[in-house]
Structures
1.
Amino acid sequence: MLQARPEWQVIAEASDGSETIQKAKEFKPDLILLDIGLPKLNGIEAAPRIRQVSPDSKIIFLSLYNDLEVVRAALSRGGHGYVYKTDAQRELPLAVDSVLQGKKFVSSSLKGFKFSDISAEKTPQRHEALFCSDDTVLLDGFTRFVAAALKSRNAAIVLATRSHLDSLFERLKAEGVDTDAAIQQGTIIPLNVADTLASLLVDGLPDPARFLEDFSGLIEAASKAAKAEHPRVYFCGECIGRLWVEGKRDSALRLEQLCNELAKTHEVDLLCAYPIGGFQGEEGEFALQSIYAEHSAVHSH
């Protein structure tokens, strides 16, 4: 169907969500047709990460799901169009034309959908959890995250232990990042876990007003220091994971919820590191589901 239009050229194909992100980063296509039911990383989870590596690419979801909540979720995470597969023969060419012209498109059979139901123009929120089997996995994840921020001329906030901060800066220097200059310029803001928790917790629970005020100020400062045209702040930390393994689960979940509140009003991407152990049995499974519910994607290494 696509090849029948000579002005359209298929420049890459991918078979799972992770590969799609890699191809988007490599080819920077004008448009991506994205399924939802993809292995490794589903389409809804992949979309905001595609927008990070190729912000000018348009995304049309092509899916057998016709539930309006799924449609809203897909479009709010970075989609520009949604075609129900049953309608594809009739509507896919029209959808591609419309989206390439800067318009939004949803299949006509999806009755009751309104674009006013979503904030499609807002950059999709990325709040991810990384379950780490050891310190190496944590440091690898934080290094990639911070390096991606700086390479895209954005800024990063890192909340970690003193030893992890030192190891992270060594890794970044090995990748050619001048961490001393970045800290001085404000494009990297390092925070110590112990000091931050001492400031935020009151009677063992986070103070919402203090959290939102303190971190809003940090994000705004980092955003001003960034050199990107539309700056975005990358915020990674192990603070919540440490609370969780110490048995302070109410405090940990409340901080995750406050992070989501923060992301509603600021252009920020969040990466929360958790130790991989301590989630055995029925109670552990319930705990995992509680964490999953607060994140847009979850990774385990």
Note: The radius of gyration is 20 Å.
2.
Amino acid sequence: MDPWTVSTGIAGFFALALEITKILKQYVDEVNSASADAHTLLVETTALCECLEKFIKFLRGDAISNLPSSSALRLIIAICDEKVRKLHTKLTKFHNSRKLAQRLMWPFDKGEYTETIAFLRHCTQTFGFSITASS
């Protein structure tokens, strides 16, 4: 997989991650009782977006020749993409609910939230490490 294809694939779920941050920011701003979980998810999603933005620039920049074609990289991109898409779908459904009560209630149980945070951190670390290791 060439670096341009990798960066294009990442750009797709980067756009979804940006939308997730907008939804979460609006929720945190509008719901006075927004839980610490919502704030943490916003921080982790924002960190992932910042890392993805750097990773895309890295892939499209002069350092492209240093990036080896790796099935491990393809796998983590696919896994992160799938998780971000599911998160986006869930938060969009929650955000677009017609019932006010449903829009005010946090849509994650503790286990799902914990798993999501851990996964977002893992993706952020993996992409950050890829930039560092290839530089």
Note: The mean pLDDT is 84.
